[in-house]
Amino acid sequence: MGQERTNRFTKMMLDVMFYCGIVVLATLPFTLKLAGRYYSKALSDNFISMLLIFAVSGVCGLMIVAQLRRMMRTVLEGACFVPDNVRSLQVMAHLSLVIAGAFIIKIFLVPTPATAVIVLVFFIAALFSQVLANVFAEAIRYKEETDLTI
Prior knowledge:
Radius of gyration: 19 Å
Oligomer: single chain
Strand content: under 5%
């Protein structure tokens, strides 16, 4: 019973994150301009570049959350070891690399320690997603072998 509750809570949080992400992405030009006014002149000086970097990263982030929502549906249905989840994990790995790449570009425009941390986190997320995709693919292979045996 506790696991089911945790799964439903996780699904709800992913839904909230997805819809809030859409709002954040839609208001990005305004909020970036506002941040440039109060936070850093470098943001204002590189407004178009920063907008592109944050927009690309935001879209990739939304796509990652969308993949997690798809995977969570399979968990709620009780069938997690399916090829669709392997594809979702591979997509998340590629999207994480795109975000890491976008922030590597940002390092040259507006260098901050947080930017380097973001690059590292998303590079590790890409590796983690790819390893997990391989584990899921292997689990599916074992499951199919077992199903054929029975």
